[in-house]
Write a structure and sequence with these properties.
The complex is a heterodimer of chains A (about 90) and B (about 230). Chain A is α+β, with helices and mostly antiparallel strands. Chain A has one domain: Mth169, Chain: A (2-Layer Sandwich). Chain A is about 30% helix and about 25% strand. The longest helix of chain A has 15 residues. Chain A is elongated, with a radius of gyration of 16 Å. Chain B has a single domain, classed as Rossmann fold. A 9-stranded mixed sheet of chain B has the order 2-1-3-4-11-10-9-6-7, with helices on both faces. In chain B, β10 and β11 form a beta hairpin. Chain B is globular, with a radius of gyration of 16 Å. The chains are: A alpha+beta (about 90), B alpha/beta (about 230).
Amino acid sequence: MPTIVVEVMPKAELLDPQGKAVAGALIRLGKTRFSAVRIGKRFELTVDGEVTDAVLAEVTDLANDMFSNSVIEDVVSITVLDNSGAVAS
Amino acid sequence: MTSIGVVTFPGSLDDRDAQRAIRLAGATPVALWHGEHDLKGVDAIVLPGGFSYGDYLRCGAIASFSPIMAEVIDAAAKGMPVLGICNGFQMLAEAHLLAGGLIRNSHGSFICRDQRLRVENTSTAWTNEFDDGAEITIPLKNGEGGFIAAAETIARLEGEGQVAFRYLDVNPNGSINDIAGVTNERGNVVGLMPHPEHATEEGFGPDTALAMRNGTDGLKFFTSAIRSLVSA
């Protein structure tokens, strides 16, 4: 069955306390190559049937209205994967 | 007698405390259920603190899509007083009844303390019993209480008097401009991270200069709502 992947990130200009905590841990581990870490969310929606334009439109609305809060986050990508997990064209 | 509803969601913790605060203030508390479309004729609504749906997705996000929230949003639009405390504040922000959003505390830790606040707007449905510039102490307990909004939203909130409460002494969670709570333009919807319902009875509140656990600064939130309804 096809899967639609939605990725959400905290807004770039806002503090991401999770990312900050991990960045601090990297420094403590001596991993000094990385100047910043930001942590977001990935939603995988398994679709029962074909991914039509209507399904994509519904997922876009859900991504904007439920999966993310536009005050604090951005939807950075919505990707359709086919049955094999490859990015569908 | 004025009746004030308290909505219980899966994961609400302070619903009973809010009911008790309403009773101590002199109104009748009414238990409301998240899964129903029924406000049971109440005159005002409290969305209590807790961890609805385990804070999954975002704090308050899943609860903001509950059946009863359709009625809460309608009632708020018609001017009914609505108070969101902690998780309830997060729900009001998620439902876009209040501006801004709440994110994880800047220091990354849960914090629990008796918090001093300044009441910045004493004309809302939930603050009209306070004197201008009143300084109060009520408990604060949250992990995701950092208030943030876009710069133009902050400027509008500050410019139009919609910052209802501001942290004093310490900023416990990294909130922009020390903002502890906000109101909508009309003043009927108010949300804050600290917990007024835990400071409503002597012997069970924050410490005061007079005696331990004696603070009742939270009571005026609820008597304010009663006053605004009686005078409406």
